[in-house]
Design brief:
Chain lengths: 441, 315
């Protein structure tokens, strides 16, 4: 394998705390040297990174790759391409496939397809309960001891409504030091809910999804996690009240991590006045005061990471009346650009912290192996190179996902990945996704 | 006026214009030949994606009295269940060359989406809990015929505001015309953040009745009772229902109105309904004239509403 020298970029490596101009020398899939003015040998390809940021490859703890079962929306190939284009080297594939990822067979299939496509590493998420029915626990041990080594369990959009089942899941997960990720929604409070409950839903005549429904569930889960001494991950926090609960929980030493999506960091419910079903998402986009609280929580670490909840849906399902359209938005290819545009460039978040929320943050949620940094000799060369000043206009149909339901379609964003490397191989080069030519082991 | 989807889209002047045109068109119903040729050659499609008899008949008759061709397209629920998407249905109508689509849907916002797919005027005949502008227009039309200018008048709307598209349109129409609106409802049936609507919220109906010019009662849907929004229909009738005793509290010339169909014995007793049947019947008649006016303004624009009418002089 050829050697690469990333020359003169601003290295942002949260794991080591480095923020400075460095060269990064990559050989045989590993980082071999990091420093200033590194010497160039004969067979080294030099990539000029002047003005660019060099960061560990991004990790997404919340991705819907839709395979198996919903390949008309996305599959592991197209989802991996979207990931590489978004600067990701590791994606956690959610369990709500068909069949559900509640067996080693499905988990290993997803994991192996990721290896074959070889654009990102795919880490399957197991379901908490069999068929995500909220009743019987999935065989955590079988999934954990499979080749996929699943240590993260979620019924995705289906909340575990029973407090007893949730308590048992948390207790049982301790045997494997696994993490339980429960969708924070009290289903009794959201029957037929279509959007955030508030002044806008009131005028639009859409049934509201109250913030209390999220906060009641976060509170319950935090209390159960504390009692069980188990690890809890709170996906896509959307409310100011949810942030306050997490802050309290962390101060009490509860083992909890949390994520926020790019869309909840940037879109408010008044956008729903267009009734464009692309904006329909669960949990829904909320109010400016929530957006402000989420941004502050991401900056101060109350929220550990940005998770995309990348949720492709085919156009024929989104081209329906709002109430019939499915929930979900694309996210992988716009995530870092949205955070740079709305948080970093306006000065709400410093660059090193922003990168941390895409790397060390998600890597602390579950075991993602050699992803998330540090950028240091001997480490796997999982890297992304960003142009923080590059301005581009999002075109939903031009994204690599099979679907095109991007809520940022038509929006001008500043910042974009230029190169992504997975174990030293370019999966994105000069903005172009590069399919693997290697035969997987 | 490009579309009529929400009362929010209208100015006060536009509302007054619709009411004035409806006033001109109202006598057509009373004469021998009950039509004018104004919209001859125009095709109006009634796209009814939700069960509705009264509103569909009213729109049907309104279009026919203006001599438009009428296509009735009815389908219950999402058309996707039949294998055709909402968007394809819209594109089909576009290809057929209809001049206006009157749409009724269970889905809030469906007319807004339709307007993004089609190049013709969209007339909202009720969408989910969102809007029912022609109902509000026929109501304010009826009020204006009885009370004159609504500026400074007070209207109390009683009942299930949360699930009511009529209430949303009604509040906006009344406010545009300068009326004061009071909402009286079980708190479980008030929309979130309703304080922002620029209305007064009251809980004691008896205290409100003596000051109002119109009592507007909303239908209580039976499924709301199952949803436990209030304990029982008996309790609802006692606290929020209009009965003989409450009728004694209102001014003698105050109107009691209801968009129909009425739940006798719940929001209105049979006696009160019968005593005020005349206004409620007028609402239905006026509805046709108001819908004729809306179709005319959307399709013919600025010409005279009775153009080509050689039968009789306009009233």
């Amino acid at each position: 394998m050829s050697e690469v020298l990333l020359r003169g970029g601003r290295v942002l490596d949260p794991a080591s705390g480095v923020d400075g101009v460095r060269d990064v020398h990559v050989a045989d899939g590993q980082i071999v040297a990091v420093g200033q003015d590194l010497p160039v040998g004969g067979d080294v390809e030099v990539v000029d990174c002047d003005g660019l940021w060099v960061a560990p490859g991004f990790v997404d703890v919340h991705t819907h790759l839709r395979e198996p079962g919903f390949e008309d929306a996305e599959d592991i190939t197209t989802g991996s391409m979207a990931g590489a284009a978004g600067g990701y080297t590791a994606l956690c594939a959610m369990a709500n496939t068909d069949p559900v990822c509640d067996s080693a067979a499905v988990a290993e299939m997803v994991w192996r397809r990721g290896r074959e496509v070889a654009l990102v590493d795919v880490f399957p998420v197991g379901s908490i309960t069999k068929d995500m029915a909220g009743e019987e626990l999935t065989e955590f041990g079988e999934l954990n001891r499979s080749a996929a080594q699943v240590d993260f369990f979620s019924d995705d959009g289906k909340p575990v409504a029973s407090s007893l089942v949730m308590r048992r899941a948390l207790q049982y997960a301790r045997a494997f030091d696994a993490v339980i990720c429960n969708h924070s929604e009290d289903p009794d409070l959201t029957v037929d809910a279509q959007m955030n409950e508030g002044a806008v839903s009131s005028v639009l005549g859409l049934p509201g999804w109250p913030r209390e429904a999220e906060e009641v569930m976060i509170a319950r889960d935090l209390i159960l996690a504390e009692g069980a001494g188990a690890r809890l991950h709170v996906p896509h926090v959307t409310t100011k009240g949810g942030v306050e609960l997490l802050r309290l929980a962390k101060s009490r030493g509860i083992r909890v991590t949390a994520e926020v999506t790019p869309h909840h960091l940037s879109i408010t419910d008044d956008a729903v006045a267009s009734y464009d079903p692309v904006l329909k998402v669960n949990p829904p986009v909320r109010l400016q005061e929530d957006v402000d609280a989420l941004r502050a929580a991401l900056a101060d670490g109350t929220i550990d990471c940005v998770g995309t909840d990348h949720a492709p849906h085919p156009p024929e399902l989104k081209d329906q009346e709002w109430e019939h359209a499915p929930c979900g938005m694309l996210g992988l290819e716009t995530a870092i650009a949205v955070v740079l545009t709305d948080l970093v460039h306006p000065g709400l978040l410093d660059p090193l912290t922003a990168i941390a929320r895409f790397t060390t943050g998600p890597a602390s949620v579950r075991d993602v192996g050699a992803h998330g940094g540090p950028i240091a000799p001997g480490e796997a060369a999982n890297l992304t190179v960003l142009d923080p000043a590059r301005t581009w206009t999002v075109d939903g149909a031009a994204l690599h996902s099979r679907a095109r339901n991007s809520p940022f379609h038509g929006r001008e964003l500043t910042g974009r990945p230029v190169h992504t490397l997975l174990r030293g191989r370019f999966t994105l080069r000069d903005g172009q996704v590069r399919a693997s030519e290697e035969v997987p082991a | 006026m490009r579309h009529l989807i929400s009362m929010e889209d209208l100015t006060r002047d536009e509302v007054v214009r619709i009411l004035d045109v409806a006033e001109q068109l109202l006598p057509i119903a009373l004469r021998e030949r009950r039509s004018v040729p104004t919209l001859r050659g125009k095709a109006v499609c009634n796209l009814f994606l939700e069960d509705s008899t009264r509103t569909r008949l009213s729109f049907d008759l309104a279009a026919k009295r203006m001599s438009a061709e009428v296509l009735n397209f009815s389908a219950k629920g999402s058309s996707v269940s039949k294998g055709e998407s909402f968007k394809d249905t819209a594109l089909t109508l576009n290809a057929m060359g209809v001049d206006c689509v009157v749409v009724r849907s269970h889905s809030a916002g469906a007319p807004v989406q339709l307007a993004s797919y089609l190049d013709v005027p969209i007339l909202n005949a009720g969408d989910g809990w969102h809007q029912h502008p022609t109902q509000a227009l026929l109501d304010v039309f009826t009020m204006r015929r009885h009370l004159g200018d609504l500026e400074g008048r007070t209207v109390v709307i009683v009942g299930d505001i949360l699930h009511s598209r009529v209430a949303r349109s009604e509040v906006q129409a009344l406010k545009l015309l300068g009326a004061e609106v009071v909402l009286v409802a079980p708190p479980t049936l008030l929309p979130p953040a309703v304080e922002g609507w620029g209305v007064r919220i009251a809980s004691d109906l008896d205290a409100v009745l003596p000051e109002v010019d119109v009592v507007y009662l909303l239908r209580v849907q039976r499924e709301r009772m199952r949803g436990a929004f209030f304990p029982s229909s008996r309790e609802y009738a006692r606290i929020w229902g209009m009965d003989e005793r409450r009728l004694g509290l209102v001014k003698p010339d105050a109107l009691v109105m209801h968009p129909g169909p009425m739940n006798r014995g719940v929001e209105i007793t049979a006696d009160v309904a019968d005593a005020h049947q005349q206004v409620i019947t007028e609402q239905v008649t006026n509805g046709i004239a108001v819908r004729m006016a809306c179709l005319y303004l959307l399709l013919a624009g600025e010409g005279p509403a009775l153009a080509g009418d050689d039968t009789e002089e306009a009233a």
